[in-house]
Amino acid sequence: MKALAQPGEKTNGNSRSTAESMKQLAEFLPIALFFIVYQLKGTSIELAGWEYTFDGIFSATAVLMGATVAQVAITFALTRTLEKRLLWLLLAVMVFGGATLVFRNQMFIQWKPTIFNWVLALVFGASQYIGDKNLMERTLGSQIHLPKPVWGKLNLLWVANFVIVGGLNLVVAYGYSEDTWVSYKLYSSIGFTLLLTILTALLISPHLKDDQEQVAKE
């Protein structure tokens, strides 16, 4: 028989849920600020005798770098852990963002999403054939129980997402204006995240129901 949850357990569950929500919100903070600051290009602000004119993608990139550092700090404060994916994101933003500012060339920051996603695709894809568990099962296996073939499909779904997102980023970066790319960067980030979440839920939900029924019988 399943034990009744204690009041403390419910509180801890709510705390974890709040922390996860704050973590997801923090993930969109850098890209949202990047978009907002880019829209201010050419605008000047003055404060206590100090004047600054927003320099398009270069100001936006500097803000993106600072906001990504803040994202990592917020995530660590909420969870006391840091995912390797988040550390890889921080490294990519710092390297490609720094190169953008040093060489005054926006192509560095425009290539960042592609390099970031394709490296993830390579790592997730390689994990499909190395070891007993792929990366998705290693990451989520302690939280949900799925059949081995489903873990494989889930892992390949994420690989496909990383490959497509990285490829489309280059299509927009080279085929359209800088303004279009900046807008695409924001809206595609939201859109692909929602789509991946929905597809992931559709893939695993039937098996979660079976798992819950099995727990109820016990």
Features:
mainly alpha, two-stranded antiparallel sheet, 218 residues, 7 helices, elongated
Would you give an account of this structure?
The protein is mostly helical and 218 residues long. The protein has two domains: 1-103, no CATH class; 106-218. The chain is 79% helix and 4% strand. It is built from seven helices and two strands; from the N terminus they run H-E-E-H-H-H-H-H-H. It has helices at 7-39, 56-79, 84-103, 107-127, 135-140, 148-175, 178-217; strands spanning 44-47, 50-53. Strands 1-2 form a two-stranded antiparallel sheet. A hairpin with a 2-residue loop joins strand 1 and strand 2 (50-53). Helix 1 (7-39) packs antiparallel against helix 7. The longest helix is centred in the C-terminal third of the chain and has 40 residues, at 178-217. It is elongated. The relative contact order is 0.09. The model is unreliable at 1-11 (pLDDT under 50).
List low-confidence stretches.
Answer: 1-11
| Quaternary class | single chain
What is the helix content?
over 70%
Mean of residue pLDDT values: 89
How many domains is the backbone divided into? Answer: 2
Separation of termini? 6 Å
Taking the sheet with the most strands, its summary is: 2 strands, antiparallel
Number of helices: 7
| Shape, principal axes of CA atoms | elongated
Reading the helices and strands in chain order gives HEEHHHHHH
Which band does the percent of strand residues land in?
A: under 5%
Adjacency order of strands in the biggest sheet: 1-2
Rg over CA atoms: 21 Å
Q: Which structural class matches the secondary elements?
A: mainly alpha
The total strand number stands at 2
